[in-house]
């Protein structure tokens, strides 16, 4: 018999934030903000520093 474990809801919140950051980061890359390149956007660079590792470690 498999004993169900308690679900840690904090991981679900972290995963939700990471999913939002992935969507937001992809959206920023398609918005023209007047700079020469979307990669130079500081918000985009900040999000892309940690959003995928955050998502992977929240699933793990």
Automatic annotation (TrEMBL):
Listed transmembrane segments: 12-31, 43-59
Ranges where the Acyltransferase domain occurs: 9-57
GO molecular function list: acyltransferase activity
InterPro entries: Acyl_transf_3_dom (IPR002656)
Domain of life: Bacteria
Name under which the protein is recorded: Acyltransferase family protein
Keywords of the record: Acyltransferase, Membrane, Transferase, Transmembrane, Transmembrane helix
Annotated source species: Phocaeicola intestinalis
């Amino acid at each position: 018999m498999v004993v169900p474990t308690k679900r840690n809801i904090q991981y679900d919140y972290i995963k939700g934030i990471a999913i939002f950051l992935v969507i937001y980061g992809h959206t920023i890359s398609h918005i023209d903000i007047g700079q020469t390149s979307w990669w130079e956007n500081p918000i985009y660079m900040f999000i892309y520093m940690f959003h995928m590792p955050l998502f992977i470690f929240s699933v793990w």
